[in-house]
Write a structure and sequence with these properties.
Layout (H helix, E strand, L loop, with lengths): L47 E4 L21 E6 L14 H6 L8 E5 L4 E6 L7 E2 L6 E5 L14 H10 L11 H7 L4 H4 L13 E5 L2 E5 L7 H4 L28 E7 L3 E6 L17 E6 L3 H10 L7 E3 L8 H5 L8 E14 L7 H10 L2 H8 L5 E3 L25 H8 L5 E7 L3 H13 L3 E7 L4 H5 L8 E6 L10 H5 L18 H11 L3 H18 L3 E12 L4 E2 L2 E2 L6 E2 L4 E2 L2
Parallel strand pairs: 1-4, 2-11, 2-12, 15-16, 15-17
Antiparallel strand pairs: 3-4, 5-6, 6-8, 7-8, 9-10, 10-11, 13-17, 13-18, 14-18, 19-22, 20-21
């Protein structure tokens, strides 16, 4: 997903906090704290993964965390409130990390922050059954013993209702994969009217019995087990559906329930006594309470955790280590045990509007001209980011490193000039009004190669909408993408399939449309998931060679601090933010 998912992190640029996306691997043992707490980010880490085949991997309880004990209050300090708590509307990074505390999905990921994860069943007994081995018909069997916060059983019918309500156009903000796949159309809410059909289900979604949920698609969707891990598959009893007001008080199916919500000030979660750890392969519920305190800006939050006084001893500074504090934190050996670092799969690129920059040689020259090292320094330095030369981040299954336009860390100006052959293309760079340092760096960098760059600022809160308009007036703009699961399927077709281009709200902000590449998208998407990884890697390189639609810049690194009495925090291999599944208060 585009930067929209990170907008909840407090701005387009998250100081030196983490990015987001996903990753996978085979079965994991006991989870441990992120290795990144004791040293530099592992810049060469390539994540990998698999889908669990043994039903035992989807059962609980999750392996105990060494040294962890129940009790205490864990706190999270964050500048702004969480935009949506309603599971069907959750799509911000903070929401995606908070939602598993009080809601469960059909599937989920085993993860210990090492980059090795396995997709397992959460509410379901396994990650799904491809009934006819063609990815068109899928069935999920609901576990015994899963319950809501009132003790009533969770059945396939409540899970199906949760998915059905995601068709409601009033409940905006959440992912739309399942809705579009069931409707076989991006205009899913016109294909099936939730408000007029609350007692039925969308076409293609059925519950043959209380234990079985069945999806039938017009086209193959081999990534369904991954898509089913997002919070919009959380169950809900129809009588507990309060519409848009569910944002204030979600109905819990997870290890915690919300007991107080003072919006923008404090969010309090306490244990859900009806959650059964024997049904849950990933979560623990060590703290008695989890409290979100909203208000402190990034520096204030970090400084409170550094001081380590009182309640802040059991707190995490959600907004990360701001650039102004990086030198102090990295230079203080006493803070190393309380810092969490790790690579994330959130990839930044300089998108080229190919409907305006139509000459392939000019686009290739931009690739050679780019000074990644300079851009990373302007962004915040090596603590913030690491350079990439591919459209897929290393977190992608099957990732293969390539460098189609080898320019070195600072660019190859002579090669860029050779491709321009004496021309001086005049290009307009659209940039967020809070990113003037990045604009200055890019302008100076590209003009050395012969480009003439005019910088036009765009209001930060409007940038996503503006560059998503097909007829936007810019040639270049910075973009960020974080996949919703660790497959090229959640990256390349979304960003570069021209058949999806519409008047506005485009993810394909390069506005590239190649019949040959589009056909390749269809071919690879129809392959079994296990066969797709290598094909996405090949297609990544081919897109770069044939279309040069965007200049990959860097992937973000995560850097966080917590109090001396916090244990079990690691950076999620899935979304690149602190995970709470193992969090505990040191007694």
């Amino acid at each position: 997903m585009r930067l929209k998912k990170t907008a909840d992190a407090g701005g387009a640029r998250r100081a030196v906090a983490a990015g987001g996306a996903l990753a996978l691997l085979a079965a994991l043992g006991a989870c441990s704290e992120n290795k990144g707490t004791e040293g530099a980010v592992d810049s060469d880490r390539v994540q990998s993964g698999s889908i669990a085949t043994d039903p035992k991997e989807s059962m609980g309880p999750a392996p105990e965390v060494p040294g962890a004990a129940k009790g205490g209050t864990f706190r999270v300090l964050r500048e702004t409130k969480i935009s949506h708590l309603d599971p069907q509307r959750v799509y911000s990074f903070v929401g995606l990390m908070a939602a598993p505390l009080y809601s469960r999905a059909l599937t989920t990921f085993k993860d210990d922050g090492s980059g090795a994860v396995t997709l397992v069943g959460d509410l379901a007994e396994n990650p799904g059954k491809d009934v006819n081995s063609d990815c068109r018909v899928w069935e999920f069997t609901v576990k015994d013993g899963v319950k809501f916060e009132d003790g009533s059983p969770i059945t396939a019918r409540e899970i199906a209702y949760g998915i059905a309500r995601s068709f409601d156009p009033d409940l905006t903000g959440g992912p739309t994969y399942l809705q579009e796949w069931l409707a076989d159309s991006p205009q899913y809410d016109t294909k099936w009217d939730f408000k007029a059909n609350k007692t039925s289900l969308p076409p293609g979604l059925t519950t043959p019995d209380d234990k079985t949920l069945r999806f039938e698609f017009a086209k193959p969707h081999c990534d369904l087990p991954f898509a089913a891990s997002l919070p919009y598959t959380a169950p809900l009893k129809p009588e507990k559906d309060t519409g848009v007001n569910l944002d204030n008080q979600p109905f819990s199916s997870g290890p915690y329930k919300i007991t107080r919500n003072n919006a923008g000030v404090e969010l309090v979660l306490e244990r859900n006594e009806h959650w059964d750890p024997n049904t849950d392969p990933v979560r623990h519920a060590y703290p008695d309470r989890i409290v979100w305190n909203f208000g402190p800006d990034p520096e204030a939050g970090a400084n409170r955790v550094i001081a380590d006084n009182g309640d802040d001893q059991t707190a995490l500074a959600w907004n990360g280590v701001p650039s102004a504090l990086v030198a102090r934190v990295t230079g203080d050996a006493a803070l190393k045990p309380r810092s969490v670092q790790g690579p994330t799969p959130s990839l930044w690129r300089l998108s080229i509007n190919t409907s305006r920059v139509t000459d392939l040689a000019v686009r290739q020259a931009l690739h050679y001209a780019i000074d990644r090292d300079g851009f990373i320094k302007a962004y915040g330095g090596e603590a913030s980011a690491r350079a990439v030369t591919s459209l897929l981040p290393p977190s992608t299954i099957g990732f293969q490193k390539h460098d189609v336009y080898p320019a070195g860390p600072n660019g190859n100006i002579e090669k860029a000039k050779e491709l321009l052959a004496g021309r001086t293309p005049e290009l307009v760079l659209g940039i967020s009004d809070d990113s003037t340092e990045l604009a200055t760096q890019l302008k100076g960098n590209l003009e050395k190669a012969g480009f003439k760059i005019t910088v036009k600022t765009i209001p930060t809160d409007a940038k996503l909408d503006e560059v998503g308009k097909k007829d936007n007036p810019w040639d270049l703009y910075t973009d960020q993408w974080a996949a919703d699961w660790p497959s090229g399927a959640a990256i390349l077709p979304v960003l570069f399939d021209g058949r999806a281009i519409k008047a506005e709200n485009n993810s394909n902000t390069s506005y590239v449309n190649s019949d040959a590449i589009n056909a390749e998208f269809d071919r690879v998407l129809a392959l079994p998931v296990a066969e797709q990884g290598a094909e996405w890697a090949k297609l990544d390189e081919r897109i770069m060679k044939e279309l040069a639609p965007a200049v990959p810049l860097f992937v973000e690194n995560g850097y966080y601090l917590h109090g001396s009495k916090v244990g079990g925090i690691f950076i999620s291999s899935i979304f690149g933010y602190p995970s709470f599944v193992n969090v505990h208060v040191k007694q």
